Automatic annotation (TrEMBL):
It comes from Lutzomyia longipalpis (Sand fly). InterPro entries: ClpP/crotonase-like_dom_sf, Enoyl-CoA_hydra/iso. Belongs to the enoyl-CoA hydratase/isomerase family. CDD domains: crotonase-like. This is Enoyl-coa hydratase. Coiled coil: none annotated. PANTHER family: ENOYL-COA HYDRATASE, IP11341P-RELATED. It holds the Pfam family ECH_1.
Length: 280
């Protein structure tokens, strides 16, 4: 009974939070209860200030085969607020493997990046059973692959291979089978290692320019007007760290300033002063 109900696995690797759909008996397809638990975990991750990036994946070799047609009810189509109907507050990377169909594909489209394994199959197979897209698929897909390709996928409900999905721009990275989650975590780590204020500003600007802005002029105005004093302070601080030698040679893993004790900061300052006197 528990296996049939499914669950959500939540793990953590440093500043990366992993959320896994675990209902392998039905290819990780969702029902109303599991969906609400999934969304609750996504919102919990968004509110955790110690986690910078999320990774969404499926347990057992398949991401998500969509909504379980055996459990669809009127509540499934509720107009209540759901995370897929907004832009997530933190970057997310989706590990796509096995089947990524229907509502599962909409979950993947919700994420900032999609890492797809070579044998993954995607598509809106819900078309065959009269089930509409209600979690952002029609809004997001055209922006990613263009109107013509989006209509092809949505209207025909055909299977699409991982290679075609990558070539049309739906997937960000194309990886070997069995490596999707690891590669998604690596991508998340690459995002988390950088100064976050400027990163989040640029992310917000991209989403606004893509979905909300009425013109190029408006997008460019928002890009500069939304730069806060905190972002400027971060840019100045990181630039000074570069001047001190950090990041030269292509190594940026330590570009973010880590908190240190006052005594250690004083010791570092004294050493810098001492070296300056010796050079003179």
């Amino acid at each position: 009974k528990d296996a049939e109900a499914g669950g959500i696995e939540v793990t953590r690797q440093g500043e990366i939070g992993l959320i896994g759909i675990n209902r392998p008996s039905v290819q990780n397809s969702l029902n109303d209860d599991l969906t609400m638990r999934l969304f609750a975990e996504i919102e919990r991750l968004e509110e955790d200030n110690s986690i910078l990036v999320g990774v969404l994946h499926g347990v057992g070799g398949t991401f998500c085969a969509g909504y379980d047609l055996n459990s669809i009810s009127r509540t499934t189509f509720s107009k209540a607020s759901r995370p897929t109907r907004r832009i997530l507050r933190k970057p997310f990377v989706c590990a796509m493997s096995g089947y990524c169909l229907g509502n599962g594909l909409e979950l993947a489209l919700m994420c900032d990046m999609r890492v797809i394994e070579e044998s993954c199959v995607i598509g809106f197979l819900n078309r065959r059973f009269g089930v509409p897209l209600i979690d952002g698929g029609t809004a997001r897909l055209p922006a990613m692959v263009g109107l013509s390709r989006a209509l092809d996928l949505i209207l025909t409900g055909r299977h699409v291979t991982a290679k075609e999905a990558f070539e049309m721009g739906l997937a960000s990275r194309f990886v070997a089978n069995g490596t999707g989650v690891g590669q998604a975590v690596n991508a998340a780590i690459a995002i988390a290692k950088f100064p976050q204020k400027s990163l989040m500003h640029d992310r917000a600007s991209v989403y606004r320019a893509t979905f909300d802005s009425p013109s190029l002029e408006d997008s460019m105005r928002y890009e500069i007007d939304s730069v806060s004093s905190e972002i400027i302070d971060e840019a100045v601080m990181c630039s000074r760290r570069f001047s001190d030698g950090l990041g030269k040679g292509g190594k940026f893993h330590d570009i973010k300033k880590k908190p240190i004790a006052d005594w250690e900061a004083d010791e570092i300052a004294r050493e810098k002063t001492k070296r300056g006197v010796e050079c003179e």
